[in-house]
Specification:
It contains 18 helices and 17 strands. The protein is of the alpha/beta class and about 450 residues long. The strands form 3 sheets. The chain has an 8-stranded parallel barrel, surrounded by 6 helices. Strands 11, 12, 13, 14, 15, 16 and 17 form a 7-stranded mixed β-sheet that branches. The protein binds 6-hydroxyuridine-5'-phosphate. 6-hydroxyuridine-5'-phosphate binds next to strand 8 and helix 10.
């Protein structure tokens, strides 16, 4: 156990208040260039870009994890330079996923610790004796940390590695590691690990690009989320990191309680369903019946109210979108002491032929409320109807974002989507609480991921 590493992690986190560890895996392959000068230039340019990136992300992420692609690409001298430039801002973890005999592990570890890494990751599967033990003893001599990899995030990890999770966790713990690497895509493993070893730090990869939602591993019990491509490959990494931090904080609402109540009252189901759009979906969210369950209805409408208050959003009226958005919007408006109107599904065939029932005065700011958003079609129709009556729409609010392009489509119209949870997060909760099987969980998450790709 390295008190220094644990303290370093705690000190930096105190300053940044960020539970993100950046996985620094930029695409690099200088060996594709055959001219030595070009190769060197490529390395120096990459190192300079990384230093700029780390300067930009200062205060937004707490740790940086560097893996073999970057070490191969830059060489350890340049990695050492990067670490020493940013030593005060981050803790640095090396991720060689070590898995050799102890003697070799120790040779590798000595070099990695000497260039400045604060901790490294080793596969628990190599076992303690003549495996992890040599690294842990070296780490103790050099006052560094060791993290035990006990499961992995990709689907194939379920074929063998993750089946042995409990044994591997016990090995890592007995070896005296300072932290565990546990995948966000298998959230029940995080929860059981935290229960068994509450004081050992858990680092969870697999959020963002690999499918688990931001904040979901933390909610399951992890201490840090390891995030790579979602930040590194974004054209504006610092802006993206800020958004992700916000998203992580937003998961602070009673997602667990709401998810449980939704499942109990069968307002969310897993199976085969036809959506309003005609598309098929392996899960279904239907909040039309929520007013029949007072506990759930109160929980949901209170969550809308709390979120609006905490964001300090101001508006003149609330418009509910038929069908489920009408009772929810009406109660939220009542709780906030605001006037209410609603948007019909179809125009009236007589009288005004309007979609809108209620009053809008020209120039007023209208908050739209619905239960869930898929691609944003119904919300866009509502926005248009409100604008035709002279109203302004800055925000639309839903309980669940099905992550199929709704937020992006609204943004194109200048409207910001506020969602209390993503569908991935909801499905994760159902899985953790035993409402759905591992197979169903994987099927739904895969569907959500694939529909996202279709949209983008
Ligand atoms: P990304 O957010 O781009 O998917 O990156 C995840 C990072 O976490 C990568 O550096 C990868 O090597 C690492 N990782 C993982 O994805 N799954 C695991 O099970 C263990 C890991 O270390």
């Amino acid at each position: 156990m390295s008190k220094t590493f644990v303290k370093l992690v705690a000190d930096i986190t105190k300053r940044t208040d960020s539970r993100i560890v950046l996985a620094l895996d930029p695409p690099i392959n200088p060996y594709a260039l055959k001219n030595p000068e070009e190769r060197l230039r490529e390395r120096l340019n990459t190192a300079a870009r990384i230093k700029n990136l780390l300067a930009e992300l200062d205060g937004l992420v707490s740790g940086v994890k560097i893996g073999l692609p970057l070490i191969f690409g830059l060489g350890l001298d340049l990695v050492e330079e990067i670490i020493s430039t940013h030593r005060k801002s981050y803790f640095f973890i090396c991720d060689p996923k070590m898995a050799d005999i102890g003697h070799i592990n120790r040779l590798e570890a000595a070099q990695l610790f000497d260039v400045g890494f604060d901790a490294l990751i080793i596969h628990a599967a190599v076992g303690i004796k003549g495996g992890i033990d040599e690294v842990v003893s070296l780490a103790e001599e050099m006052d560094k940390g060791v993290l035990g990899l006990c499961a992995m995030s990709h689907p194939g990890a379920g074929e063998h590695l993750n089946k042995h999770y409990n044994e591997l966790l016990e090995i890592a713990a007995k070896a005296g590691v300072d932290g565990f690497v546990v995948p966000a895509t298998y959230p029940h493993l995080i929860t059981s690990t935290k229960n068994a070893y509450p004081s050992t730090i858990i680092f969870s990869p697999g959020v963002g690009t690999q499918g688990a939602s931001f904040g979901s591993a933390l909610a399951a019990g992890a201490d840090y989320e390891i995030i790579g491509r979602s930040i590194v490959q974004d054209p504006f990494p610092a802006v993206r990191a800020r958004e992700i931090l916000k998203e992580i904080k937003e998961t602070g609402i009673d997602v667990q309680k709401i998810a449980l109540a939704l499942a109990k009252h069968r307002c969310v189901m897993v199976g085969e369903f036809k959506l309003t759009s005609g598309l098929m979906s392996p899960y279904y969210i239907d909040l039309r019946a929520t007013p029949s369950h007072q506990d759930l209805f109160d929980l949901i409408t209170s969550a809308y109210v709390a979120e609006l208050k905490s964001r300090g959003i101001s508006f003149d009226r609330i418009a509910g979108v038929a069908t489920a958005g009408v009772p929810i919007g009406a109660l939220v408006a009542y709780k906030l002491n605001k006037p209410f109107l609603y948007i019909r599904r179809e125009e009236r065939t007589h009288g005004t032929k309007s979609l809108i029932e209620g009053v809008i005065n020209p120039g007023e700011s209208i908050l739209i409320v619905d239960d869930a958003v898929t691609t944003g079609g119904s919300l866009l129709k509502a926005i248009e109807a409100i604008q035709e009556r002279g109203g302004r729409v800055e925000y639309a609010m839903v309980l669940v974002d099905r992550e199929q392009g709704g937020a992006q489509n609204l943004a194109k119209k200048g409207v910001k989507l506020i969602s209390l949870m993503t569908a991935s997060r909801l499905i994760q909760e159902l899985y953790l609480k035993g409402f759905i099987s591992r197979e169903d969980y994987e099927r739904v998450i895969k569907y959500i991921q694939e529909s996202k790709n279709i949209q983008s």
